[in-house]
Design goal:
Distance between the termini: 18 Å
Number of strands: 14
Order of helices and strands: HEHEHEEHEHEEHHEHHEHEEHEEE
Shape: globular
Number of helices: 11
Radius of gyration: 20 Å
Structural class: alpha/beta
Length: 354
């Protein structure tokens, strides 16, 4: 996660240039050198180091207590924002009455839209359908991916909310260690009378596999979080309780996913400029130097040089490429010797150092 965090902070750094903003990183006792990296590369960032892993909810609540701004943006460390993301979302939020959460369009590292960007309230009936593989009512499909509209439930990877509203509803419920807390917060804000919105006119990359690895631990925590949520907000439902119990029991039989998917890569391309042409020789494979406007060949591994290409351009390009051409993406963060990317929202991404 340390490498994805560095990329995330670089993108956030570029996105707050014109804002009166502070960046707070809460570390839940990581062992991968994240804290050392933040201190060295981002000395102005407020780093809060917990002595143990306190979970997503408590970690964020600790950060919120230290925050001084009117608005909060809860952001996962495996995300990449565009230079204008915060400005656009804040401008929209300021025009709304009784605004709750504002979410945005999330895509994975290969540009695939993540439907959890906007969801409906998961009543027991809707949850049962989702567990059974019928998710039509689970997602807020009344709003198209690139549109703006009211929605009730958002994912904790990106949530903009006023600090006063966050505190009014008690923040993230610390009964949840991980998973479910974002649904709970969204629902509490709706019940408090606020209107939450999906703002689909800005996109954020969420690698997702870095923070939501689909293994047996995930399954146990996910179904456990569902039990907490429905126990707090809905009456007992025999069928639902039984399905959740079965989910928890079956979690022990899940196999851990592979670290990366096998790719059919025939070509390699570096999106940079002529001044950095020599950089292509340092990377893992011989790469053709191209511009962000060039049409890419099929089955191409693309590396974006963030020293030259803006994060907004990177996100736009990743989102707009045809998804059936076998094109995959990685990013070279500024002034670093590594590239990162993820080709699936279900498995961990890849870090290549050089």
């Amino acid at each position: 996660m340390r490498y994805f965090l560095e990329l995330c902070l670089q993108s956030v750094e570029a996105a707050v240039v014109n804002l009166d903003a502070e960046i707070i990183v809460v570390d839940n006792n990581s062992k991968d050198g994240s804290c050392e990296m933040v201190k060295q590369r981002f000395p102005y960032v407020r780093l809060l180091e917990n002595k143990e892993n306190l979970g997503f909810s408590k970690g964020n609540n600790i950060g919120v207590k230290e925050a001084e701004g009117e608005y909060l943006c809860i952001l996962n460390p495996d995300t990449v924002v565009a230079e204008d993301t915060f400005e656009r979302v804040l401008e929209f939020a300021e025009k709304q009455d009784k605004v709750g959460i504002v979410g945005c369009k999330l895509i994975d590292g290969n540009g695939e839209y993540l439907p959890e960007s906007k969801r409906n309230i998961p009543t027991p009936e809707i949850a049962i359908q989702k567990i059974l593989g019928r998710s039509r009512g689970y997602y807020a499909n009344h709003i198209k991916e690139g549109e703006i509209g009211k929605a009730d439930i958002f994912v904790g990877a990106f949530m903009l909310v006023k600090k006063a509203v966050y505190e009014e509803v008690g923040g993230l419920d610390e009964d949840y260690f991980m998973y479910g807390e974002d649904i709970d917060l969204s629902y509490k804000i709706v019940k408090a009378g606020y209107d939450s919105y999906y703002y689909g006119e800005t996109e954020v990359i969420h690698y997702k596999g870095e923070s939501t690895l689909k293994d047996k631990t995930y399954a146990k925590r996910f179904y456990g979080a569902m039990q907490i949520f429905y126990g707090k907000h809905f009456k007992s439902n025999f069928l639902f309780d039984g399905l959740v119990w079965l989910g928890i029991q079956s979690a022990r039989f899940l196999k851990n996913p592979s670290s990366a998917e096998t790719l059919n890569v025939e070509n390699y391309a570096l999106v940079s400029n002529e001044e950095n042409k020599g950089l292509a020789l340092k990377l893992s494979k011989p790469m053709q130097l191209v511009s962000a406007k060039d049409r890419l060949q099929t089955n191409t591994q693309v590396v974006f040089d963030a020293n030259v290409v803006s994060f907004k351009t990177i996100i736009d390009k990743v989102s707009s490429i045809e998804k059936n051409r076998g094109i995959t993406f990685k990013i070279l963060p500024k002034n670093t010797n590594f590239i990162v990317g993820s080709h699936s929202s279900k498995s961990r991404g890849e870090v290549i150092t050089f």
